[in-house]
Every structure is written in structure tokens, then in C-alpha cells.
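Need Histidinol dehydrogenase's 3D structure for a figure. Predict it.
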Amino acid sequence: MKIFNYPSPEAEKRVQDTIDRGLGFSREDQENVQAFLDDVKKRGDEALIEYTNKFDSPAVTLDTFKVTEQEFEDALEQMTPQFLKALDRAVEQLTTFHSRQRENSWMDTPRNGVMVGQMVRPVAAAGIYAPGAKGGKTPLVSSVLMGGIPAKVAGVKSISLMTPPMANGKINPHLLAAARAVGIDSVFKAGSAWAIGALAYGTAQVPKVDVIVGPGNIYVALAKKIVSGTVGIDMIAGPSEILIIADKTADPECIAADLLSQAEHDVLASAVLVTDSQDLAQKVSTALEPQLNALTRKDIAGPAINNFGAILVVPDIDTAIDLSNRLAPEHLEIIVESPFDYIDRIQNAGALFLGPYTPEPMGDYIAGPNHVLPTAGTARFSSALSVSHFTKKTSLIHYSKAAFEKEADDVITLARTEALDAHANSVKIRRK
Ligand SMILES: NC(=O)c1ccc[n+]([C@@H]2O[C@H](COP(=O)([O-])OP(=O)(O)OC[C@H]3O[C@@H](n4cnc5c(N)ncnc54)[C@H](O)[C@@H]3O)[C@@H](O)[C@H]2O)c1
Ligand SMILES: N[C@H](CO)Cc1c[nH]c[nH+]1
Ligand SMILES: [Zn+2]
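Structure prediction for Histidinol dehydrogenase:
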């Protein structure tokens, strides 16, 4: 992995390439995705089956497109006790974390005779996307939990899960077990942009939803971007990224492993180490090569490391923090002598992992917080997928006659300033 001194023009270029890589949708991608969406809007399930047959599995038909109860049962029979134990732990710990995000409705009486408040309500229907590239061979089972659990905690009644099928026309059984564990019964065998279109517009089989959440590749991200406004979305969750700030106390083998953990997600993933130790930089670079070569997904992690990976040597940890705030990474690991000393200075990051025993995958699967996180610098203004993505708020207002009389003149004045006579009249008419 290439080592750069930072600041320097060469390092600056690599940093800029990393920032620019994430959400760069080409015109061609946009046109293709728009065409998929238009077609799903027009032809519904027929279009879904056609694209699923062409891109994922020739075995999916209109009759087998929705996962049946029998398929759920067959899947559950294949689960090992070891997997079910891990799944149970993940479900429990994620539910505990997300339950703390619940917001209550409230009412207040700020002035005599006036009542104001906010009612929190779940959306009626939500759609969850769980990635599964290469005919469902890399099913992100954990993404089912990350979408489903906050939706359930919010109180959403109808949840549909979309995920690409495997070549044999089935959904990966572990993914179905995860869906069952969080209480999602409607699972459809469709991925990519057409799955997002089905959720946004509805088809004969797929219910139209109010909110679509979940990560996915460029086609999924672009489709979500296009349909947002028609439906709510969580965010444009792009290719994964990790930034690690480490000092001489860090273990180079662990740092190399953590960098690769995100690089293996996508050829567009980014993995950056920022350190004040030249010695650590060299050792991580050396440790990385053999670890990369041993990976099953080295064909994905390799290009990610080559194109969007870097080891940046900085004069001090304060410079590392400034750079990290500028990059606003999806995942930020701080592995230095006293990591908690730096929390106050972290302004932009999707999730923060502190200390040598908090590798990023703890957060991907089991710690509790959500792993669907803002990427490509969008952590400057957006946050992890949460219960609030599945709720909306209605304001509540009440005036007594006396309270109305007291404030009426000011409303009339403001309405006239805006030349809105009818507004003024609606108040005036009540003042007999
Ligand atoms: N930001 C986050 O929180 C977060 C979390 C998890 C995963 N991720 C990211 O999600 C992504 C998952 O992507 P994935 O590819 O593994 O799964 P995916 O399900 O998003 O993509 C696979 C689908 O894309 C379709 N497809 C393939 N080629 C196509 C083409 N030319 N046109 C249209 N559709 C096509 C396939 O047929 C399949 O249905 C990765 O980039 C990963 O880094 C991000
Ligand atoms: N690291 C990914 C988010 O960028 C989430 C994930 C799912 N499975 C493994 N990892
Ligand atoms: Zn991951």
C-alpha cells in the first residue's frame, strides 16, 4: 500500500480522489437507472421478472417471485445452532440500542389557553433493501437486521424486503432466517434499481411503500436518489470506507486487517490509515500484502486498496484529526494511546470506533448501532440509519377563545404584511 507524507501535493491528490470517488454517477448510469425505473412503473412485476432473469437468476417466475412460507421453513431447517446463537445476540443487542432512539409524542401549554405539541407516528409501509451481489453469493444478512430492527422499533406495520436471488432462484437461507428473526414476512426476489422502483411505485405483488432504506451498489443508490421525494429514503449509502488514525502503540497486523475489512466490500471502497509514526506506516504496508492475497475477495479488495487506499504520515495526531474531519469518513477507528482524549475534536464521522479491541466489524454485526452509514463525505450532514427514518411528526395546535383574542391582532398584522387578505379574514371573522 502506498505511503504518502501529508501534507504534500501527491497526498492531497490521493485524498481528493477518495473524496470524489463515492457518489460520482455518470450520465450513462443515470439514464440506465431512469430507464429501469420507468419500465417498472409501466410494466410492474413483468419488468421485475425480466430484469431479475437477465441479471441475477433465470429461474425466477411470477409465481416464485415472492418468498413462500415453505421457502422460509426450508431455510430455517438449514441453520446451525452456532449461526442462530450469533443471530439472536445481534437481534437482541441491536434492538436494545435502537429502542433508545424512540421519540415520544409531547404536548405543552406554553401560554394560558394555548396548547402545542408534536405527535410521532410510524410510516405505514417501509421497504428494505439488502444487497446480494453475484447472484446472491454475498448476501448482507446483517443489513436485513440493520433495516428491519429500527423499522419494527418504530412500529411500522408493513415491511417488504427486496434482495437479489441466487442463480437457482432462491434467496440465501441465512438472509431468510434473519428476516424471520426480525418479523419480516414479505420478501421479494429482486435487486438493483428495479427493486427500488417496485417499492417506490408499487406493483401487483409488491406494495408501494412510504420509505425505502438500505445500502446497495451504484444502481441501488442512484435509484434511491431518483425516487426520493416520491418516497422518503434514509440516505445515499455508497461504497464502504474506513479511516484509521493510529499511533506507534497500534498493532500493524490489526490495522492492515481493519483496512481490508472495508476494502473487500467494493472495488470503489476506500481504506485510509493516517499515522504520526513512519515505523507503523512501513509495518502496515508490509503486513497488508500477504493478508490481501489470502482473501477470497482479493479481486475486489485489491483494486480498492490500489485506487482508493493510502497510508498518510502526518506530523502529529491533531493533523490526523483535522484531515479526518475533512474526509468525514463512514467509519473512523482511533487506535492511539488515549483515544477518548480526542472524542471532542471529532466533528464528522458516521461511526467512531475507539481503542485496539474495537475493530469496525464489531459495529457491522453486533455492537448495537446501525451499520448503514453516510459515505463520501456526507457524514458532514447526515447520520446513521435510525428509528427516526421510519417515523414522521405531526404538529398539534389548540387555542381557547381568550388566548385567540390575545394573539389575533398580531396574526392580522403579519398576514396583511404578506398581502394575504384571506388569512387575515379567517382571524377577523372570529372576533365578533
Ligand atoms: N454505506 C453503507 O452503510 C453500506 C452498508 C453495507 C454495504 N454497503 C455497500 O453496498 C454495496 C453492495 O453492493 P453489491 O453489489 O454487493 O450488492 P447489490 O445488491 O447492491 O447489487 C447487486 C445487484 O446489482 C445488479 N446489477 C449488476 N450489474 C448491473 C447493471 N449493469 N445494471 C443494473 N444492475 C446491475 C445485480 O443484478 C444485483 O441485482 C457495496 O458497495 C457496499 O460497499 C454500504
Ligand atoms: N461495512 C458495511 C457498511 O459499510 C456493512 C456490512 C455488512 N456486512 C458487513 N459489513
Ligand atoms: Zn463491512
